[in-house]
Amino acid sequence: MRCNVRLFIAIATALLLTLLFLGGKHRDDIRALLQTTSSDSKTPPTDETSTPQTTPGDKIIVMAKLTRENTDWVAQHLPDWQNAIYTVDAPPTTTTTRTLHTPLNKGHESLAYLTYITTHYTSLPSILAFIHPHRGGYFHYRSSWHTDAPAFDNVLSLNTLRLDTVLREGYVNLRCNWHPGCVTSHRKNAHITPAIWEAIFPNGTEWGGSVDGNNNEEEEEEGGMPSEIGAACCAQFAVSREQVLKRPRADYERMREWVLGTGLSDARSGRVMEFLWHVVFGREAVQ
Known about the structure:
Elements: H1 2-25, H2 27-36, E1 59-65, H3 72-77, E2 82-87, E3 100-101, H4 110-119, E4 127-130, H5 141-144, H6 154-159, H7 163-169, E5 171-173, H8 194-200, E6 237-240, H9 241-244, H10 249-261, H11 266-274, H12 277-280
Parallel strand pairs: 1-2, 1-4, 2-3
Antiparallel strand pairs: 4-6, 5-6
């Protein structure tokens, strides 16, 4: 009996300390989360003198989802964004005419991302946010731990996204934490081989200069592949229309065909693209 009382006191104390910790250290984050989950939440004001502004609705969320995944939260909580949500595991014959889909469930989210770009290349909105289908929350840590926002919440992530920064920089990774993907021990990227690099960038990265930010040929391997490739995981990022258009549509079509045709699995082909998006959109090999 005495042991049960002690156990109860220990658990209660731990819960109390957790609440005090959250209430103190993360008070502002929690307040922001509560504010941004309302339907009238807005993006923080931008600096009108520094970059051109988007018009209402001139931005889109692109994502891939499985049939079982509920993405109603996008329209409910991000009504000022257009959305293009691709179902990847249902063939066209089982979807309605209004349902977007990919021809295969391949490359994780990359096939949906590339399908949107190649299909709408000449009519892109000013800003494109490529994100995962789970909204997140503390109780969904296993599926959303990589969303770099309080409570791992993608609604909060996009509502606090500085659109002026996206327009100015062209490409913004929505995750700032370098682990996994960009810490030193991860930069000898085993997912990307010289053959894969050559297949995706047969003419080089086409951004001018060395992809790794210098002209030291000794640091590049066969086929112009840099010796290190690294970026914060996990294929959630925002780009401007101008940055997308710096590459011809044929580049994105070639990448899409590689995803469709590679003998790599869904997971492995998706991992390849996950660690190349920053290079695709003009960043150095290690970002």
